[in-house]
Amino acid sequence: MKIIKAAGGLLVAGVCLIVGLGNSAATTYLPTTDKPVPQIVPVSISTPAPTPNKAPKAAVGKLMPPRLDMTFGASNFEFRWLAVTDATHYRLYENPDGISGYTQVGDDIVAGDANQFALPVAMGSQNWDNASYLLEACNRWTCESSNQINTRDVLLQAAGYF
User: Fold this and answer.
1) Cβ proximity of 157 and 77 under 8 Å
2) What domains are defined for the chain?
3) What pLDDT sits at residue 34?
4) Which of the 8 DSSP states describes residue 130?
5) Closest of 138, 142, 137 to residue 61, by C-alpha
6) What is the per-residue pLDDT across 22-52, written as a single tens digit (0 to 9) for each?
């Protein structure tokens, strides 16, 4: 194999080397000569198609965190929140004792269906003093968590201590 140094690149004997000249043409170096033989060859530059499952730039931005409110009903906790722009669904999470961590309560709540959720409770079934809840607002690409609500504070308000 014969290697020839040519202007703008190397020429390997038996191989055609194309050196770009901007966006619209290229010079071709032929393997049979030591000198470039200028030829104008149209060069097509294409943009790759967008990758599926990647969000457009505007949609990747963070969602605003939801603001969760909770009241105590006759036999349930009632959760309410304002709609979050660009959220497609919400998830309510419970930490039953303040130690074990959060797990999702029920299914995803579709945005637009309701901005509230009623959770039936049995007063003796849990350590309500340390339990807490939070809400996530989500879309296809991200989720954003709300403030945490401690059930003790809500129960004390319901009993008239605040």
Assistant:
1) no
2) 1-45 (no CATH), 57-159 (2.60.40.10)
3) 59
4) T
5) 142
6) 444 444 545 555 565 555 555 555 555 544 4
